[in-house]
């Protein structure tokens, strides 16, 4: 892929994308997403997502409703069955606006033993948003509202290139396999357990291990820490396969990071990438981000 700027012209303000990594991720030219409602502009962003998988929009100034409205314009129906929704009431008043922060409803940093904080720490393992639901998540849009004075990056992995770099025998082995995705499973391996009542609201979902798309001819691996087992295989062999594939996907050549600044909005396609938050001193510094995730269903 060329490292030169790719421009996809629209009838109104042109939006261009500058690659940030040799195989995926790009930064968009300056645009106010609150005003992006022209169908050509929205199509340009969708085309950028199909090409790069992750897009960075700098200098945004979004209310929660602005973020939700843009997500609906871009990609349709929103995901609301989040793990955090079973633990506490959303302080923003809408479960579609997921609170990705270490701050409680009183504006103070959460205690170290707070269940919401411990649940959130699991975002530091490689994952895909809403893969434990059916329909699963398509685009996630994470907006930086309060950034700490220390690095608190998010890493992304390019799952399309990772798939393409598999040997032919492995591709043949995994074709047609399905994985069960469970956030109850991934949280358990991190030492966090939902109550039986909470777990009953998060039953998990089954998805193909290899995803294919209408908007791009490239296939992608679809797995991360929520993937608990291979449906067609015995549990031990299936988990070993998932472990081997994960180790392959997080090789340095497939991974890039985003260093947050105030007002950043980052959009990624969960079907083509996985991501994780990097640790920082979250009992000392506030970090407030909000995420909206769309569902992988046909756009109306």
Beta-strand share of residues? 15-25%
Helix content estimate: 10-25%
Q: Could you tell me the mean pLDDT?
A: 92
Number of domains: 1
Query: How many beta-strand elements?
Result: 16
Radius of gyration: 19 Å
- Under CATH at level 1, the class stands as Alpha Beta
Query: Structural class of the helices, strands and pairings?
Result: alpha+beta
SSE ordering: EEEHEHEHEEHHEHHEEEEHEEEE
* CATH H level, superfamily name: Clavaminate synthase-like
Largest sheet strand order: 1-2-3-4-14-6-16-5
Largest sheet: 8 strands, mixed
In CATH, the topology is named: Double-stranded beta-helix
CATH 2nd-level architecture: 4-Layer Sandwich
Low-confidence stretches: 1-6
First-to-last CA distance? 32 Å
Number of alpha- plus pi-helical segments: 8
Task: Write a short abstract of this structure.
The protein is of the alpha+beta class.
Descriptive notes:
The protein has 300 residues and is an alpha+beta fold. The protein has a single domain (6-295), classed as Double-stranded beta-helix, CATH 3.60.130.10. The chain has helices spanning 39-52, 64-75, 115-121, 159-164, 168-174, 183-189, 196-200, 235-249; strands at residues 6-8, 15-19, 26-28, 54-57, 98-101, 137-146, 154-158, 178-181, 205-208, 210-211, 220-221, 227-230, 255-258, 265-269, 273-277, 288-295. The strands form four sheets. Strands 1-2-3-4-14-6-16-5 form an eight-stranded mixed beta sheet, covered by helices on one side. A three-stranded antiparallel beta sheet has the order 13-7-15. Strands 9-8-12 form a three-stranded antiparallel beta sheet. The two termini are 32 Å apart.
